[in-house]
Amino acid sequence: MARSPLNRLAAFGGAPIFEEPLVGFADGKDAIFESFREVVHPHHLTPGEIMAKELGFEIGDITVVSFVLPINGDTKKENAREKDGPSLRWNHTRWHGQNFIDALSRHLVSALTELGIPALAPELTSSFAIENGPWGYASRWSQRHIAYAAGLGTFGLSDALITEKGCAMRCGSVVVAHKMEITPRPYTDHHAYCLYFRTGKCKVCMKRCPRGAITPQGHDKVKCFEILTVDQRPYLEGAHGPGYTGKYAGCGLCQTAVPCEGGIPSLNEITP
Fold first, then answer.
1. CA 229, CA 248: separation in Å to the nearest integer?
2. For residue 161, what are the domain limits?
3. Inside any domain, residue 137
4. pLDDT in tens, 93-130
5. Is the pTM for the entire model greater than 0.85?
6. Is the distance from CB of 177 to CB of 138 less than 8 angstroms?
7. Which tens digits make up the pLDDT trace of 261-270?
8. How many domains does the chain have?
C-alpha cells in the first residue's frame, strides 16, 4: 500500500487513496459463513464453496483474510462538506480505489501462490455476482460481512461497517488454503458499534442521506441505488464540474460528517 502508484490520487497531487489498513483473519469453516445465506441472501457463498468451485478440488484448512482500507483524511473532510452528492475527490477514491483493491487482491493471491499456497480473491472470480431479489441488491460475497466475520467491525443504521478506523473505508478479502491465527470477534451484537442501536439516538447518517434511503427501519438498498444511478447522474454529465468518472458518482454522504466516520464512536458523540 505504501509503495503502489495505484494507491495514489493522481488528480490531487499524488495523495494516498487509502491510509494504513486493518487486517483480520477468520476460520473459513466458521459457521458464521453459513449464516450469511440468511442475513445477506440465499446465494451467498461460503469460503469452502468458492474454493471448490474455482479450484476444482476440496480444501482442508481455509482462512479468510479480510482487509479494511481507511479513506484518506483530506478526502473525508472534503466529502463531509457536501450535501447532495460526492466531492470529486471522493468520486476518484471510489473508482481508482477499486482499481487498487483489485490490484492488491491479485498481488496477495500471486504472492501466496508462489509460496505454494492456493488462494483466490472471490470478487475477481466467475463465482462472484451482484443479485437483485426480495432481499434487495446483494452480492454473493459481501465484503462487509466478511470483515465482520474477521473481527474488524459491526454494522450501523446505514449498513456501513463501523471499524476501529471508522466507516469511511472500503474493504476486500482473499481466501487462503492455509491455517492461520484467527482474529477474535470482540462483539456478539452485529450493531455493537452503532450509536443509534446502542442508545436510540444519533441518526446523523439518516439526516445526511439526500433521498431518505436510511430510516430507523434500516437501509433501503433500492432507493440508495436510485440515488447513485438517477439522482446523481448529473455529476457524471458535468453539472458539478469536470472530472467525475465511473459508472456512477459514488456518494458516501452517510460515511462522512457522522460520529462513526473515523472510528468507533463514544457515547459523548451523540447529536440530539
1. 6
2. 8-269
3. yes
4. 999 999 999 999 999 999 999 999 999 999 999 999 98
5. yes
6. no
7. 999 998 776 6
8. 1
